[in-house]
Amino acid sequence: MRFNPNVLDCAAAPIAEAWSWVDNRDSDGLIDMCQAVPAHLPPQSLRDYLGEAIRAGQGATYTDIRGIEPLRAALAANISERYRGAASAEDILITAGCNQAFCSVIDTLCEAGDEVILPLPCYFNHQMWLTARGVIPRYLSFNAQTAIPDPDEARGLIGPRTRAILLVTPNNPSGAIYPPEVIAAFYAVAREHGIALILDETYRDFIAIDDLPHGLFGEPDWRETLVHLYSFSKVFSLTGFRTGAVAAGQPLLEQLQKIQDCTAICAPHAGQLAALYGLENLHDWKVEKADELAQRALAIQSAFAHPDLQYRLISAGAYFAYVEHPFDIPARDVVRRLIEEQELVSLPGSYFGPEQERFVRLAFANVHERRFDDVVTRLLATQ
Ligand SMILES: Cc1ncc(COP(=O)(O)O)c(C=O)c1O
User: Fold this and answer.
1) Nearest to 63 by CA among 256, 279, 254, 243
2) Over the stretch 110-157, which tens digit does the pLDDT of each residue have?
3) Does 39 score more than 90 pLDDT?
4) Does the first or last residue of the chain, that is N or C, have fewer Cβ atoms within 10 Å of its Cβ?
5) pTM here?
6) How many angstroms separate the alpha carbon of residue 377 from the centre of ligand 1?
7) φ, ψ for residue 216, nearest 5 deg
8) How far is it, in rounded angstroms, from Cα 7 to Cα 129?
């Protein structure tokens, strides 16, 4: 049997590889800062609702390819309010998670040999899918002081085969939250060149509720440029229910619908019910959890202010902290050493694109801030 060389070229799933370096996953001393998973189950009220709905026979059938109408309408209303803009149910297609949304958008926009511009460091599944599809990533350099990419650099990379600029904000892996004016500048570049601006906003609910993530949904012609990707995984702790969404214009959704029909047919129905319950009932719960995480980002910043620490915190936000390590060795060796000597599990920067050997990612969403001093003590012990 022969395999697609593009798939053979893909890196192996990183989380599994990092865990293969851990001898005892059940050790009490282990601090797991490896994967971006919510620390808690969805609230009891959601679980009760879903249990009853499924007992009553709901959720077992296919839905429309684009998803159930009430969820599409509720997400559109949520987007309109959160971004002080305008979206309607017609702009929304519900997917089996944000990863599937991304894969389908890329398949809709790109053929092999086309190019997508994206900043370093980048989310490993994005990089893997581009590689699997033969789409060429053109990277924006990493600014290790601000972790914010430069829209002018993107302008210089655009060529005849560029199909999209791809941003993740709040960012995985850096935790950086891109300022609205930077996102607006990327949008202007994409609009000028008639290409898509894909914004993966999986972590947008962890931006302070009074802050505007960006103003693009307020642009009258946003549908010609913006492709917004969303996830219900983190906001309502629904990672296993596989529910996400795309918000975009009709020309894109009409084509994307063909891909959706062939791959998932529809997003999991039970996940759609859960997401709808969340949007309709869990606003306060969501804000409370976002506040907890914002506290955690502040706590990791103050823990890293330790005067003797040679690991430098570059940025922290949403679920992640991105850290520069002090050694002249590959990031994988640093991470393996942290696991073997200190039982601290993180991910090497090298999983997040080229030129990331100096960095490690700490995912702090499921580690309480009272353990951050211990994290710093363990890092100090390796210096
Ligand atoms: C940037 C980003 N996009 C997408 C996803 C996947 O989201 P979903 O569970 O909705 O597929 C993740 C999960 O870690 C992520 O970090």
Assistant:
1) 243
2) 999 999 999 999 999 999 999 999 999 999 999 999 999 999 999 999
3) no
4) N
5) 0.96
6) 30
7) -65, -30
8) 9
Nearest Cα residue to 120 out of 144, 93, 92, 88: 144
Query: Is residue 169 in contact with ligand 1, taking CB distance under 6 Å?
Result: no
Cβ 168 under 6 angstroms from ligand 1 = yes
- Dihedral of the CA atoms 319, 180, 108, 162 (nearest 10)? -110
Helix (H) or strand (E) holding 69: helix 69-82
Going from the Cα of 244 to the center of ligand 1, the distance in angstroms, rounded, reads: 9
What domains are defined for the chain?
5-41+285-382 (3.90.1150.10), 44-282 (3.40.640.10)
pLDDT tens for 300-340 read: 999 999 999 999 999 999 999 999 999 999 999 999 999 99
Residue whose structure tokens are 């719960």: 285
**Which of 123, 124, 237, 364 to probe ligand 1 with, by most ligand atoms within 8 A of CB?**
123
